[in-house]
Design brief:
Distance between the termini: 37 Å
CATH superfamily of the largest domain: NAD(P)-binding Rossmann-like Domain
Radius of gyration: 16 Å
Strand content: 15-25%
Helix content: 25-40%
Strand order of the largest sheet: 3-2-1-4-5
Largest sheet: 5 strands, parallel
Number of helices: 4
CATH architecture of the largest domain: 3-Layer(aba) Sandwich
CATH topology of the largest domain: Rossmann fold
Order of helices and strands: EHEHEEHEEEH
Shape: globular
Number of domains: 2
């Protein structure tokens, strides 16, 4: 079993988060980053309606094209979120080569971090992670914890 070291990232507005992939997974990653006040650059030739709206409102910088070598030059954290394994691999290779934190959607062991299931309230951020690439377990636990918190409110 690989070792784990959980952290909570703060001051994400001071670094650039790059998300490669404009589909539903990329949208989910961007939504979480925006909730953390991150500066986000989306690299994708197409995007979901929500991603387009965030780009049009200026919440997200959208580079409307395929990923290219060098796209991570200004990045502080990276999310490879396409449905094309070769593209995710290229993103991951560049990110790791630059010493960046990189999350690979659908293949967490290929990157050097994965994003937990998160529940946010005004008082707390609850994050639940699982071993063995089984995010469904983390999601179910997060939801049960959220229900418990709601019962105390």
């Amino acid at each position: 079993m690989p070792s784990r070291y959980p952290i909570t990232l703060i001051h994400l507005e001071t670094i650039l988060a790059v998300v490669v992939g404009g589909g539903v997974v990329g949208e989910r990653k961007v939504r979480g980053l925006l909730a953390a006040n991150a500066r986000v650059r989306l690299i994708a030739p197409t995007a979901t309606p929500s991603l387009i709206a965030w780009a049009e409102s200026g919440q997200v910088e959208w580079v409307q094209r395929e990923f290219q070598p060098g796209d991570l030059a200004d990045a502080g954290i990276v999310f490879a979120a396409t449905n094309v394994r070769a593209v995710n691999r290229a993103v991951t290779d560049e990110a790791l080569g630059r010493g960046l934190l990189v999350n690979v959607a659908g293949a967490p062991a290929e990157g050097n971090f994965h994003a937990p299931a998160v529940h946010r309230t005004d008082e707390a951020v609850i994050a639940v992670s699982s071993y063995a690439g089984r995010p469904g377990i983390a999601t179910r636990l997060r939801d049960r914890i959220a229900q418990l918190l709601d019962s105390f409110a």
